[in-house]
Amino acid sequence: MRILLWHVHGSWTDAFVRGRHEYLLPVLPEAGPWGLGRAGRDWPDSAREVTLADLDADHVDAVVLQRPEEIAVAARALGRQPGADLPALYVEHNTPKGDFPFSRHPLADRSDIPVVHVTHFNRLAWDCGSAPTLVIEHGIPDPGQLYSGELPELGVVINEPVRRGRVTGTDLLPVFASVAPLQVFGMKTEGLAAVAGIEKSRLTARGDLQTRELHRELARCRVYLHPMRWTSLGLSLLEAMHLGMPVVALATTEAPRAVPPEAGAVSADVDELLRCARRLVANPEEARRRGAAAREAALARYGLGRFLDRWDEILWDLHTTPRHTGTERLEEKILIPRRERNTP
């Protein structure tokens, strides 16, 4: 299939474009949120940059939407209406903002475009009304078991920790810094120590590293810290688990499902997390053992193969369901995995 999608979430797209299809990524001279294309990423050749003005609409089999505005943009560019005469799915990456738990999804009650949530918590949190919904959990290209844990420090990945504040648990960093020095990776981490009131010797802002360098440097830290209060499910957490890192995480949103108890500690009790972090920093062998459990769990639930197989099922069913069969038939096909049907 030839699938149109915008490069919105780099880590998720990094997994999605490794499937068996041809992926059409709009590009603009100025790049920006509507024209990133590949953005220099090391993706398969099947992920192609395209100019919307030159794209042959008849050669697009489906569109994967990630922002409400993309529905109108795709319709204007292709002369085909997503959900009507162009098969479409909407991927919801984020937890709702605002009036939770009464947050209405932008596609609530629409019968023509199914909403694909990336976590079960997101599906529970959003009010999608009568719109068909399903969950396809994240998949991660396996970076390998790179964990050494040679540094008795806590590694954490947070993008824009100063601006996002309590959402990303930035206010909790000082208490964790009292247990062990922090290495903070991510975009716009400059000046974080001063803003958080942490001595520079206890927090090193590493910035936004390239993926391979990030994995290599993060894996040197003894423990991965996940202080997020209200994010969907940071892919950096799943990457850290794939690396073989033990995890200390707030028990919020999807983290309790992603991180098994044997992988470290998942709790809403910060004191409990501090005790675990302190113990793991002081005991490299226990940290390594729990990191191995984290990797095993991540490979089983968030492996790339499982992710791509599930997407193949959904895309095939969407593509082969006639638009005139109605919502009931579409829901029947997309909500019931093929292995639960009596079909090959």
Describe the structure in your own words.
By secondary structure, this protein is α/β, with parallel strands linked by helices. The protein is 34% helix and 17% strand. Helix 9 (255-258) links the parallel strand 12 (247-250) and strand 13. The longest helix has 19 residues, at 284-302. The two termini are 20 Å apart. Mean pLDDT is 92; it is low at 336-344.
In short:
This protein has 344 residues and is α/β, with parallel strands linked by helices.
Q: How many strands in all?
A: 13
Return residue spans where pLDDT drops below 50 for at least 5 consecutive residues: 336-344
From the structure provided, what is the oligomeric state, counting identical versus distinct chains?
A: single chain
Q: CATH class of the largest domain, please? A: Alpha Beta
Characterize the main sheet: 7 strands, parallel
